[in-house]
Amino acid sequence: MTMTIKKRLGSMHRIGWFFGKQYVTTLIDRYVHRQRREEAVMDFVLQHATAGSPDSVLATMDSFARQRRWLQNVGPTKGAVLVRALRESGAQRVLEIGSYCGYSATLIGRELAARGGHLTAIEISRRNAEVARRIVAHAGLASVVTFRRGTLESEIGHLTEPFDAIFLDHWKDVYLADLKRLEERRLLRAGTVVVADNVGFFDVPDYLGYVRECGRYTSRYERATVEYQEGLEDGVEVSVFNG
Ligand SMILES: C[S@@+](CC[C@H](N)C(=O)[O-])C[C@H]1O[C@@H](n2cnc3c(N)ncnc32)[C@H](O)[C@@H]1O
Q: Which of 31, 65, 82, 182 is deepest in the core (most CB within 10 A)?
């Protein structure tokens, strides 16, 4: 009981710290830099990353996030978990929900380009979707990634065949609703791997309870840290749909 309370207080403290930092740095973006960090990283990538090189684009975004302004990319550590899951499933058709500046789309696109696969990426923010599209194009992956501006709910009518892999990295309170939408529309097949980011940092008990206990998934938790924040625990849930 005491351990549970301590864990909960620790978690509240971490989330408070995280949002406090985001609030302050967003104010700094607005009043000091006078540019959203998403457009700033785009300019930085277009200026410094080698065109046509996903490796260079990813390294440039990592360097921006570490040395200039923090970015909510999946980052290299959790990105490696994502890539491993894609390789394990041999994924060709991948869906991402939540693209932000296109870091994970570049990571997934790099993986799929090698084997003729395709990524459909859904992003709710028009400005973020444009940044992601330009960064992915700079990486030379425009033909591998299709961006759709909206939510899964608004775009699901355009999705027809099941995906081999799904990356959930949007707002955490809709992970479960969106997973159920995908199930209902038969957009998962036996063997589809669903990778959900940030489930160790944010509380997502409904989603985790569902994939771990409903009996339709074989699910594991991969412990990691918050992107570019080595001291803060985070984790990725990797769940294979059993059909
Ligand atoms: C954590 S960031 C994604 C990071 C990205 N996957 C990466 O690793 O580079 C979350 C993104 O999800 C988007 N988002 C939030 N709710 C969404 C929704 N319901 N549907 C689609 N995108 C959403 C936000 O605008 C934001 O750009």
A: 82
